[in-house]
């Protein structure tokens, strides 16, 4: 298995490597997506290396941990002499047939993931990607530490390859 990865890397370095990329993504866009291998955000959105920042977790959800990563990333950008603010886009990308729906009846797993009491879990809409995107976009738009960043939400259909804007 590892040999295949190393072989793939040699081919990448020989044919597609670009040494001129910067830490700042050229599309000033951050995508939050699920780690399902069918829905690699850069691939399904037709992006090239260096164009997007991608944060992935189970379900592509805006969890307390994910929020802290975004806030930390903003500080990293400021440390590099820039910012993540006006002119930047955060896109929440959820998808149909997401595996997180398989544990939607497991509050003991989901409550700590979302940092919520079990009674508040229905509000995060684990079983419905469109409602989940709407929820997560609202959380991001309400986060004062991310003020100035435009936030939108998409749902990717694993049966067609197409995304639909939701919010
Ligand atoms: Zn998923």
Please characterize this protein's 3D structure.
By secondary structure, this protein is an alpha/beta fold. It has one domain (26-165): Carbonic anhydrase (Beta-carbonic Anhydrase, Chain A), CATH 3.40.1050. The chain is 33% helix and 17% strand. It has 5 helices and 5 strands, in the order αβαβαβααββ. It has helices at 2-15, 41-44, 64-79, 107-114, 129-141; strands at 29-34, 52-57, 89-95, 150-156, 163-165. The longest helix has 16 residues, at 64-79. The N and C termini lie far apart (40 Å). Zinc ion (ZN) binds at residues 34, 36, 59, 95, 98-100.
Short synopsis of the structure:
The protein is of the alpha/beta class and 167 residues long. The protein is built from five helices and five strands; from the N terminus they run H-E-H-E-H-E-H-H-E-E.
Count of helical stretches = 5
Distance between the termini: 40 Å
Strand content: 15-25%
Number of domains: 1
> How many DSSP E strands?
5
Helix content: 25-40%
